Protein 1
Amino acid sequence: MASTNSQLDQYRKSSITGASPLRLVIMLYDGALRFMAAGRRAMTEKNLYEQNRNIQRAQRIIAELMSCLDMRQGGEVATNLLALYTFSYNRLVESNVSDDPRGIDEVSQVLSNLREGWVELEASLRQGLATDAA
């Protein structure tokens, strides 16, 4: 079993190091959504430790997304993303403190929509590269 875990860790590391910047952003969204779902589950099960641990993990990912924004070159898009990330971060804090899953649901919707936009951007860039190569 230790060998399998080691192989899985190695696979994860290689997928991260070989990923494009767009793919890394999508992976961050995936992680945040996964941790929020686990936090919500723990909340409904009244498991405060797991609730807090998972929601804080999602918050750390959102903080990482915020720190990656280039406010000078990103213009209005970066400003809007910062506002959405700030809302999401704060809403997760409120939800965690009040044990109210509605905040997690709201943030999950926001991040799912943003993730979808990044996936579409990645697909259109890949399509453009394929067209250029042909």
Protein 2
Amino acid sequence: MSGTVEKKLADLGITLHTPAAPVANYVPFVRTGNLLLISGQICLDAEGKMIAKGKLGADVTIEDGQKAARACAINLLAQLKAALGDLDKVQRVVRLGGFISSVPSFVDGPKVMNGASDLMVTAFGDRGKHARTTIGVSVLPGDAAVEVEGMFEVS
């Protein structure tokens, strides 16, 4: 274990697994200067099982959506670790983009995204406070309920 961020995660019972490989023609992350952009991460657990499938507002509850968003955030952190070797190199969580598979009338996407945002703030403290966009979509890969992408300032 490298540093203080991973110790905070361990205290929460979170161990970062080997991140999932891309399933199409893209890379998991791109670094340009001091910015690291992480491709969208769906809500898979460490064993590759989907945390929540389906649509918010139909067959997925807000609470299950929040758990799914948290899983996406854990997957973002796993990709960060793979890119940087040490999460303490993250200077700031700049932005999270959340995609919520939902019925057209579902308006609580921001509540769902709090599952990801809350973990970033817990892990990084004030450096984890970020800009955010939450978008309702009709479908996500693998029928995932949530997908989250991220932008991070790194050293």
